[in-house]
Amino acid sequence: MTNNLSAGNNGKLYALIVGITDYASHIPLDGNRVAFPKLSGCISDAEKMMRYLEKDSYYDVDIKFLANQAASKQGIVDAFQEHFSQATENDVVLFYFSGHGAQEYVDNLVFPSETDGKSESIACYYDESNKDNFLLSDKEIRWLINEVGVKSPHIITIFDCCHSSGVTRASMVAEAFGHAVTKGGLYVFKQRPWDNYLFRHFSQAEFLEYGESKLLPETAHIEMCACESNEPALEVNGEGVFTQALLKVLDSSNGQVSYQTIYDRVRQLLRGIYEQKPFVTSVNGAQNSMQTGFLRKPVFTGGESGEVIYNAQLGWVLNVGAIHGLSAADSDIQLVLYDEANPGQKYNAKVALVNTDSSILSIGDSILDTDKVYKAELKGLLSVKLSVHVAPNAALLQDQQVLMNKVITDAVDFVSFVDDENVSDYVIRFNNDYYYITKPHDPYRPLGQFIHIGPGDKWADDIIRQFKHISCWHFIKAIKNQHEATLLPENVLSIGGVVGLTENELTAVKSQDKITVKLTNQDGKWSNKVKIELSNTSEADLYVSVVYLASDFMAFTGFLPIAVYHLEPGEKVRLGIGGKKELEVAMPEMMRWYNVEKLEDHLKFIVSTDQFDVSRFSLNSLPEPPAPMAQDVLMDPKMRGVNRQAAIQFRSAFEVTVPQPAVKGWRVYDVEVDIVNPLFNTINQENLERMLADDVTGEFAVGLYYNIGFDENGATSYTLKPEITVTAQEKAVRGLISDIGLDLANWYARRKRNRYYQSVTKRDPNRLRIVSEGDSWFQHPLVRDIIDHLSKVYAIYCTAAAGDTLSNYLSQDKKQGEYFLDALVEYSPGYFLISGGGNDILGAQFRQFLIDVVNDETKADKRPGKYLKDSFQNKLDGLMEIYKALFMLLKTTQPALQVIVHGYDYPIKLNDPKHGWLGRYMIEKGIADPEDRRLTIRYIMDEFNRKLIDVCKEFENVHYLDVRNIVLYNEADKIDQWYDEIHPNGEGFQQIAMRFIQLISKLEEEKKVVKAELVQ
């Protein structure tokens, strides 16, 4: 559905657009403590926003534009007050700012809403004359908005800046997309003098007496911000990523989109690509104000097309009606018709009457050819909006952006992204070089075919098609008659059924019954049969259709002799296929391989007194996820979903047989059919081994059948889940298959990454190549580790292993893994990354480095290493000798290779006496003081890093990376980037990955300089 929006009595749009790039980076601020860097894209972003608003035909637009020198604090305040003072109730006010943001300390007794004692501000233009009063705080903006709000215009504020106090992802973004600058900094400005506030006519004493909310009331308005208050807002390649995404959403929807939808789409355009989460919020507004259209314009929905033909008796008829989603409430909806032969010519029409599967249109003054068939634009036909969560992943940032852009442009009618997996309908997951869809919190049971990433964006189209298919399936599942006037009585149709091979009497079932299905073993095949009979218990002719909705997203209408069956009064009909009077049942292959407990299928019975069309309700199954052995097919693929019909045990004991008077209308009966897997949590040993050995399904087998954890030495352990039974020759076993060895587990993880390496380098042969060798900081089974984050930018071939020790790196014992020298020779990388030494010291062996007796004399000792034996230093020296040998080997065999090795950050959580690899052993030895434990670990880390630095200095191409004090932890502020005692969480590993990217970028720039000098 479309709408020609034009200016009329819609009021005026008053906009104040501000962009600042020319920050005086040479002028020190706040007592010579800090300076703002220049930006490059803010004025360009502001101009783009201005041009977008200038094109708006709905309002009479009046824009004031301020840039650089004109955008001083006083300049912005004057423009705000003068320009917006003209706005009245029928008008719209928009304030847009692109530039630096900041934080400043405030007195939280005066401003109790700032619980952390910090206020957010925008950095206006400044020079020497006003460098001490250039911040415009959120409190001052609130005061300005309150002045404007007296006349009740619709107010929107848009801020593309940040007030970040954390480490940013600018380096990762720059590496993937180009130059990146953060619009904000790490610095918090000191508390300003009270006279520098715009509302200084109120005293601090008055604020303490009357309160912030009374003196600075919040006027209702919509606020859009580039990021949360503790996040960075980025400018990439001269564009603010928030403004770019916002304009993309507005352009793709012709501006006819709600604030809630803007929030959803913009947030997901940036999600996972840039570490900023934009927010759009209604400040002090009505409960449904987020559903208001942007700039208070109408919001229209609408996309697929229906067909319109001329009926000599009824007039112009649209082949879409109530069962397709229209309702009586949609009467008077405006439609646009067009002739496919001449799509540029548009005709206006509106819905006059909605019938069961058709609608009568009124065409007004339009002149149409009664011999032609016209198309009607009907957005949202046969679909519902799915809530979809994108699981955190290590896909290339460019690939993530391709997917998000596709969804925003092609799937906005049936996909809405959500950040919380708990409220999602489905989840998109990335694994190796493909995406796949699952239900929430069920990562190892794919619902359809894997979508492999390839060149271009065709692969993203395939994901969109899967979601469109699922959305249509849900639409059909949700069909019901909500119009009381045309709703048939429930007992016009009787449904009876019986399970199994016997000829038992049929049992009645009611709509909304939930049926549990059990399969039985018939000659080695899990199968059954079900008989279902429909009876017309009314005195009217009925038209009946049965739609079978399978859990593989098939919609099948072939269980009756014809899709819409004419059922006369008193007549009965059995469901079946090919003349049979029963439905055959068999266990689907995927139910067995992926250990699915039950399948939730649905039977939908649509009954009407009028003929109707269900041709739109036929869907094939989604293509299946991979199985490890194609020949082990347990079901005829040509009958996928049909032969899978299961035996039904009816829960209701009623039969509805009372005849009803003839009526007109339609009704839907819904029955959920739960097909229970009789082999749930049981798998044959041979099948498990096949699944584990398969290149694609191996990781899913590990996730479905094994628990993942760590042993006392920090090594990854994979043990068979206690609820799983592995059978062999009719006997349960828990032998060698019960525990996957560490080497095999690491092999799975490496194989996944290295298949992705092959895919990435095939698509982009020029991408920077890296080989990595290391421990669980490079290969963690439960957390997005350093290599996961770096893989978003580089092509990384992995030879790392969780739980590996430095001494093993040179052993050449491949086990189930690979020797790094082989990889260096085969793939000729530019860089070799090393993580090692932690597992040689920590874990159970850590005990041997602690003194045996802790007494008062020891406690009084001031040396930080007082609790350590001499063997600790000996161990460190031995590790450094291994590093020297490793670096010498690389210098000899790979003289041009750049090597990067990192130390470790200081472990924080050392107070658990039962779990972990450090704290519990110190507590066990009698080191009871938490401060002593903290200082001991800091000493260990400092010694390790100090010795490693000295070794690296001996080799020109070896670069040491210091990651101490990088992983954030602040219990008071509830900041915790540690997953456990010795491993950061995903955010913590990301912080460290940033340091790798910064160093690699620096080395790459130095290479360019050297190359340029050689050319000269």
Overview of this protein structure:
Helices cover 26% and strands 24% of the residues. Helix 8 (259-270) runs antiparallel to helix 9. Residues 1-7, 163-174, 176-183, 231-238, 630-662 and 729-739 have low confidence and may be disordered. The longest helix is centred in the last third of the chain and has 30 residues, at 986-1015. It contains 23 helices and 49 strands. The protein has six domains: 12-296, Rossmann fold, CATH 3.40.50.1460; 304-378, Beta Barrel (Elongation Factor Tu (Ef-tu), domain 3); 386-478, 3-Layer(aba) Sandwich (Rossmann fold); 484-676, no CATH class; 682-740, no CATH class; 769-1011, Rossmann fold (3-Layer(aba) Sandwich). By secondary structure, the protein is α/β, with parallel strands linked by helices.
Helix and strand composition category: alpha/beta
Q: Name the overall outline.
A: globular
The CATH class label of the largest domain is Alpha Beta
Number of strands: 49
Please state the second-level CATH architecture of the largest domain.
3-Layer(aba) Sandwich
Number of contiguous helices? 23
**Euclidean distance between termini CA atoms:** 63 Å
Low-pLDDT sequence parts: 1-7, 163-174, 176-183, 231-238, 630-662, 729-739
User: Strand percentage, roughly?
Assistant: 15-25%
**Helical residues, percent:** 25-40%
| Alpha carbon gyration radius | 34 Å
Q: Average the pLDDT over all residues and give the rounded result.
A: 81
